[in-house]
Amino acid sequence: MPFSPFDKRDFIKLVERVFGFRPGSVAGSPTTQFLRGDGQWQVPTGSGPSASNSVVSETSFGQASAVGSASAYSRGDHTHGSPTNPVTAHEASGDPHAGYRLESAPIGTTDLSDNSVTYAKIQDVSAGDKLLGRISGAGDAEEIACTAAGRAIIDDADATAQRTTLGLGALATLATVGTSQIDNDAVTYAKIQNISATSRFLGRITAGAGDTEELTGTQATTLLDNFTTSLKGTVPGSGGGTTNFLRADGSWAAPPGGSGYATVEDEGTPLTQRTTINFVGAGVTASDSGGKTQVSIPGGAGASWTTYEADLGAAGSESWRGRFTITDAAISPSSKVIIQQAPGPYTGKGTRADEAEMDPLWCVAEPGSGQATVYWRTHGYLAHTLRRINGNQPIDTAANRPIQPDYNVDTVQTILGRVRGNVKFNYTVA
Questions:
Q1: In whole angstroms, what is the distance from residue 267 CA to residue 300 CA?
Q2: What gap in Å lies between CA 379 and CA 415, rounded to an integer?
Q3: Which of 82, 89, 94, 204 is exposed most, by the fewest CB atoms within 10 A?
Q4: How many whole angstroms from its chain centre is CA 206?
């Protein structure tokens, strides 16, 4: 239990009793008992000193002991007596030693004066870059990491200085970003919200100012102006029908007079007027020139020719006409087969050194299924042979001309030329 407060006099008396001041002797043996080292009056072992009438009674601070009194103390007036209860006395007069404790119990908050614990008395911080505080809940102080970057912000005087430390500009103080805070050309197409679907224009169809809207092609057309005599633009609605045409003034009307059809000419000869003219074929071009539409159709690259060599007869059986057959799967009864004699050299002509001596041939092909029959003949040269002479033929020597009208000569026409051996022909199927 804690000690009760007491004054200086009580403390001295206690010290005198405990630390070396002798106690009062025991009554009845004043001459035979001696003070031992443990503070007790005892008769020593052995002979010891002898009693004598000359021994005077012992005194404490010059006072004789009070025989048999354990509660008597040597007082300041050199008399023995029982002191007043010190605790009672202190309680009655007030404790002059309030605030002092002579005990090992823990010191509470109320036992410490304000500002009495210095920084040095607080336990050491475990490492650098630490703050004292607590992250969550009530409890003992904790060490919180605080880097150099954090200290740079903490020691700034105000928020402006902290923004400077962090390298922030004026935008850091704004709750929202307005038009004036965005640089021109800073917002790219990718930063704009996605268009919701394909085939859309950005604009505004709703009346009045407002946000950008997505417009369909039909909506966008309503915002465009019609064409004029000087400006491009859209075409006004036609109203349908087949008789009206768009005029240069932007109106739809039927052309005055005529059918309104253009005249198409073939080599200068007008063709039947049609509402639609379709030009097909590779290389066909059409262009406007001099009030007319000029259509150019280039000539073809030419037909593909096949060479065929036929034997027209052996030696001794020459003839001026004949026929032979060409076999070709591309030929049908409706085909058009064009055939002609081909240039040499020919084979099987015997000793003839010059093919030019052979009479030329005329030929024609009759198409069939997978074949064509070719008919040939030499050309019809006429030879006139005198058969009969009627009348006389006197001569006018001066003018060298006949003078007798009844004179005539009869002639006979004969086909000349014969062909034999191999002859080449070129043909094409159309």
A1: 18
A2: 8
A3: 94
A4: 32
